[in-house]
Queue: 2 jobs
Job 1
Amino acid sequence: MSDQNDHAENSAGEALSSGYKVGYKSPPKQHRFSKGKSGNPEGRRRGARGRRAIVERVLLEKRRIEIDGRVRELTMIELVVLALRQEALNGKTRALKVYERLDEFCGPQKPSEPRAGYLVVPQVENL
């Protein structure tokens, strides 16, 4: 039992004598990541999808629906925007606010400042 205590004191004494304190966010030097070796050597699995790819795949999925007697093929994002617009037209205030924010974010951009200039048109002679 005394051998184990001596060893623990020696390793703690070495750590303290070198100026390095072992504790929270300070692992012992022999247990740190070794230089030149990745923390994730195998990397991401092939075919694994991130959240962005999943959302993009779902939103760009196409569906066939009937609108005004005609069958149309629309993406899910188009269907969501159409449903949001319909809810706003039916008087749902929350849907109207979301639709307005969507229009501000994705709608046509307004020019920041008016621009003035000259348009130079060369004169063409009739031959």
Job 2
Amino acid sequence: MNYGETLAYWYLRFNGFFPIVDFVHHPVSASFLTCGADTHRRYRAQFRRVVQYVRALLCVPYFRNGAVSHPNRPDQPTQRALDTYTADSDVLAVRLPYVKEKIADTDVHWDSDRFANWQLDLERHTIGLIVQVKTSDRIEPEEIRRTFDSTRLKYAIERLGFLEPDEVTTAVAVLQDTPTYQDHSKKYVIGKLLICEKTPTCDGQRPYLTAKLLEIHHFLTERLQQFEPRKYGDRLFFPDELMQYMIWRQNHAADLRNDPSANQHIPSAPE
């Protein structure tokens, strides 16, 4: 996981979800790969640069002219190669409606207002989220469209297991234009969630839920602050180094603010 996916994972964990990270869709049909020949040529060019670098490091004679010998390589990837392309969901998460948790005899509170704004009822709905995390400052609309392509949605929805097979097609169709789908029984809700650096510009309503990484970070920081002594004592039980560091930093927040040596090596901003 990269840092954005780690923050997303723990945001969902701290809100009572059971998340799966890097959920692999294999194989995914090539129907969603709409990029043209220019994109494929760019990928091959990137590959050749990697080969040149490896050749320079290892001096392997098999590499010739910056490319691996590959007879009869077509200008376009074959249909078989495309059909075996593997995609993934950064996080796939499930939450049941009656989640309760106590830390140091204190009830844990969820980010209820945000979920209410998303029209997700934490007390009533069984929720499945298909989550993609983007850490780039700029996200192209086409990239988001591919991220929540119907093929990927269908694969993820079937893995969640909320819906009968006949209803999956309906859910995929609805989720093409709306952020969430509620099943016929009104008990299950499936949502598409984009966690990103900056909210993408969009004409009209976005067909996905959004949260900024800074908002996710703020929630995690507040939770760590609320249960700071307990979390600090248990910090090494967290498998992610990023979370261990955040807990350590929260515990030493006052020291970092008051210790002049903590900032003496940080260059001042240019005037």
